[in-house]
What does this fold into?
Amino acid sequence: MQVCALPDDVAAELLQLSQASFDRYGPHPRVRAFWLSRFARFANWFAMTEAERRSHVTHTLGEVNGSYVLEAPGGPFTLTARADRIDIGADGVAITDYKTGANLSELVARAKEGKRPQLLLEAIIAHNAGF
It folds into this structure.
């Protein structure tokens, strides 16, 4: 998908869309209050960062399944993953994995320890044109 122009008020547009979804899927008031406030924080962050992120990409893909077959002593092993977002531009490929409600510093620490290899595995798939 080619990168599209953003609306004038990104956060307001996202909040309006989320409100319509919550009207259909989140009728319980406590659940609604909990998730709407979290989504509002995300919408504001997205509005502040997305224009800069898009300035470097020509194509964006979302929720993309990928795979790569590794030859192993016991036979072929198929590595599969689902990337939340892939941005493609002149500088290469950027893979984003959105973690909602997660402790970011803990995730980063675990990734550095090799205990959260998702992005590395997705990079291997991308490097081998598997997405």
Remarks:
- The mean pLDDT is 87.
- The two ends are 13 Å apart (CA to CA).
- The chain has four helices and three strands.
- The helical segments are 10-25, 29-54, 104-112, 118-127.
